[in-house]
Automatic annotation (TrEMBL):
NCBIfam families: nitrile_beta. Residues 1-99 form the Nitrile hydratase beta subunit-like N-terminal domain. It comes from Pseudomonas simiae. Its EC number is 4.2.1.84. Gene3D superfamilies: 2.30.30.50, Nitrile hydratase, beta subunit. This is Nitrile hydratase subunit beta. One of its GO terms (molecular function) is transition metal ion binding. It catalyses: an aliphatic primary amide = an aliphatic nitrile + H2O. NHase catalyzes the hydration of various nitrile compounds to the corresponding amides.
Amino acid sequence: MDGFHDLGGFQGFGKVPHTINSLDYKQVFKQDWEHLAYSLMFIGADHLKKFSVDEVRHAVERLDVRQHVGTQYYERYVIATATLLVETGVITQAELDQALGSPFKLANPAHAEGRPAITGRPHFEVGDRVVVRDEYVAGHTRMPAYVRGKAGVVLHRTSEQWPFPDAIGHGDVSAAHQPTYHVEFRVKDLWGDAADDGLVVVDLFESYLDHADVAQAVKA
């Protein structure tokens, strides 16, 4: 789904401060309470088996824009997990409000049912030129908006396979399992000639991709 959570490639936000990754250990949690957000999420997803991690990601996507702007990363996961615990009947909104002593705003309800994976096709191979499917998805997806319709080259295919996010993210436990691909894109192909020279590698599920020659033939 297109929303405030998917801002990759948007202009007008100024420079993003960043540092080059190193092999040195980097602290994951910057505040003492942050590890509780992940603990709560995995209690619901793994211990209670009430939802999947992709359903948590979808709940994060369902937050109001004001909630995204006004909260930190791990706060969003607390809200998302609380939303799913209410939606799956582990706790009620009234019990949550009473425990906190004030109304707790949950994520918005889901407005889509998800979609199945594309199956029955041969895998892509390293070196294949592929195109990301140019499609709008109303529900959860892990296909960044800035690569839709863009062509790149497959660098790697994972040996492991995972449930297709667009299905499992909506509670479909029968979701087809697929590998993901490291696809390399030219920066200028993504953002035009005004962008710097360089390459971007994006990890994409198989159903998000078509062979470049097939996509061109369809357009023709």
